[in-house]
Amino acid sequence: MGIDYWLVDCSVLSNFALIGKLGLLKEKLSAKLYIPEEVKSEFLLGIEKGVIPKTDIDWLRLVNLTASEDTLFKGIRLRLGSGESACLAIAISRQWKLFTDDADARKTAQRFEVYVSGTIGILVYLIHRNHLVLADGNKMLKDMIDNGYYSPVEKLDSLMA
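^ that's the sequence the OP posted. Answer follows.
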């Protein structure tokens, strides 16, 4: 079994940052998580604008687009933001997993047969790996919802089978 590479976009990172839990991802998932420069720029712009609290993301591994990925990025960029487009271009090219809560990015990922999940998927993963208990996962989800996250579920209980 090879290494699991996860690209994570600004929507997912900001959900954890807004509730002060980005450190949990650093502690438990830092070996898996990668971001392109475009996601880092979006996140830092959110901090600069006061939309995201000042949060350290220097621990996230940066990944650069190759020339062929850049061509794909430019095509996707016509429909999506730069962070989502860069993540998608890399995920499509390298067959990496993509974590995004952006509906259009998720649809595009599915069209290209890219594994896609989001904030909820990460919470469920952390619970399944015993890094979180269900009650704490539900509390984090509620806090994210209270901070503006549109979640398809109010609790994680039904996803724990």
